[in-house]
Write a structure and sequence with these properties.
The chain is mainly alpha-helical. It is built from seven helices and two strands, in the order αααααβααβ. Strands 1-2 form a two-stranded parallel ribbon. Helix 1 crosses helix 3, helix 1 packs parallel to helix 5 and helix 2 packs antiparallel against helix 3.
């Protein structure tokens, strides 16, 4: 594994595969990373993802190559975005996110805060085991 693009592909594919198959929304989320992260070439990312789908690499191996805190946080956030791309989050995805977080040497509180921030801004995300379904008039907004 030689570069950041391969790390992104390895970790996001592992996250997408957490519940057994990769959804179209998850692939779209992975590919959109190339648009938001100018350091990744979209075609290179697509090639790396295709390769990792056929022959997955170790989460630990990919994470161990992260060189600094910013890179580690970007990798974790990429995985979180992929895990909720289909507007659902289940325990298998959470388990993979925890594994990614640990492999990157990041605190679980950092992962929880990033996940909460994303979920807070997208009320369509359904969390398995949580049956809360707030209508707009049920949400209390404090001034």
């Amino acid at each position: 594994m030689a570069n950041f693009t391969e790390q992104v592909a390895t970790l996001t594919v592992a996250t997408a595969l957490a519940n057994g198959k990769i959804e179209v929304e998850e692939l779209d989320a992975i590919y959109s990373l190339a648009d938001s992260l100018e350091i990744i070439d979209k075609n290179e990312l697509k090639d790396a993802v295709a390769q990792k789908m056929q022959n997955p690499s170790s989460i630990e191996e990919a994470a161990s190559l992260a060189t600094n805190e910013e890179e580690k946080e970007l990798l974790l956030e990429a995985c979180i975005l992929v895990s909720v791309a289909d507007n659902s989050l289940d325990s298998n995805e959470v388990n993979v996110l925890i594994k990614v977080c640990q492999a990157l040497g990041l605190s679980q509180s950092k992962m929880i805060l990033a996940l909460a921030s994303i979920a807070q801004n997208n009320r369509d995300i359904k969390i398995t085991g949580n049956d809360s379904n707030f209508d707009e008039d049920e949400i209390i907004i404090e001034d």
